UniProtKB/TrEMBL annotation:
<dbReference type="Pfam" id="PF00465">
    <property type="entry name" value="Fe-ADH"/>
</dbReference>
<comment type="similarity">
    <text>Belongs to the iron-containing alcohol dehydrogenase family.</text>
</comment>
<dbReference type="GO" id="GO:0004022">
    <property type="term" value="F:alcohol dehydrogenase (NAD+) activity"/>
</dbReference>
<feature type="domain" description="Fe-containing alcohol dehydrogenase-like C-terminal">
    <location>
        <begin position="189"/>
        <end position="376"/>
    </location>
</feature>
<dbReference type="InterPro" id="IPR056798">
    <property type="entry name" value="ADH_Fe_C"/>
</dbReference>
<dbReference type="GO" id="GO:0046872">
    <property type="term" value="F:metal ion binding"/>
</dbReference>
<keyword id="KW-0560">Oxidoreductase</keyword>
<dbReference type="Pfam" id="PF25137">
    <property type="entry name" value="ADH_Fe_C"/>
</dbReference>
<protein>
    <submittedName>
        <fullName>Alcohol dehydrogenase class IV</fullName>
    </submittedName>
</protein>
<feature type="domain" description="Alcohol dehydrogenase iron-type/glycerol dehydrogenase GldA">
    <location>
        <begin position="9"/>
        <end position="177"/>
    </location>
</feature>
<dbReference type="InterPro" id="IPR001670">
    <property type="entry name" value="ADH_Fe/GldA"/>
</dbReference>
<dbReference type="InterPro" id="IPR039697">
    <property type="entry name" value="Alcohol_dehydrogenase_Fe"/>
</dbReference>
Amino acid sequence: MRTIKHFMPTKVVFGRKTIHRIGEEIESLGLSTEKVAVICGKSAVSNGYVEIIKKHINGKVEVFDIVEPEPTVEVALRVIEEVKKFSPELLIAVGGGSPLDVAKVVSVMLTNEGELSEFIGVPEAFKKPGVPLVAVPTTSGSGSEVTPYAVLTDRRRFKKAPLISRYLYPVLAIDDPELTVTMSPIVTTNTGVDALTHAVEAFVSKRATEISKLYSGKAIELIGRFLPRSYGNPRDIEARENMMLASLLGGMAIADAGAGLVHTMAHVLGVMYRVPHGLANGVFLVPVLEFYGLSAKEEIEEIGRLMGFEGDVYRVLEKLREFLSFLGIPKSLKEVGLTESDIPDFVNLVMEKKFLMGNLPRIPTERDVREMLKKNL
Ligand SMILES: [Fe+2]
């Protein structure tokens, strides 16, 4: 058996109504709540979640509801600047992956010297832990509450800007599935498919371990059963609860085993055509697994069994395509904006991300990527 490394410093409190325990959980960790910055988007305020949190915090709370979806480096810099003026002792991020990731960046940029650009893609640049961060997800997708990653968009350089550091783990995650019932069917699909992609990519990763596979395998099984139910009826709380668990497990799995080529392709698509992250993963999930093909035969067939699709690799992929189509994921890349003339640029941007390739069951050449795009246009 290979060497196993597992690191997960975040205290997770999972379950219905746990949002009402946020005050006591923060206290149990010995954290100060004298000055608390809440970082979120507008919907966390309009859905009343910020108000609930404020009720459970004794100290001074200031709300920074200025995070936008698929946040850019500029958005993050603005939030850092605003929050800095308040000099909080604790941060609480409320929302989907976007506010959580921005709050992670704020947390470390309040304590580490230097420009944000110096930290992008450079784990060694972080010298100090950030201001403690509590993550309160309101979607079931990114699993960001338990990962050492934060992803921003760099529009100027036409790239995603990932930050990776053990200091990006929140100290506490409050996973209350009741906060996810406000997601629309479209957001449910996009975030749920992101969680599925995390689980699948971690499952087939060359860095997968006996521990990470427990998380990713269970997440795949739960998503197969409960994502179509959450999509069909947003108020199905049992389905929402299981999807939130799947998202959490998916996050823990990529924290150990890493993401893969689906995320690489999705990041390029996201930057080039402003396609939401989960949707972009959804359109590449089957094409990439098809490319892995027999190189990941056992894993893909196991994924099929976990999702209730019996059969060989090809049958599993056919069923997975139907599953995604039911959820409203487009079948062709054209539908999300890709044109034939953009393919060369797209291929170049994918091939620049060589650092990820070691995780993959089959490493693509430039030609492979081009063929994959053409075949699925
Ligand atoms: Fe993702």
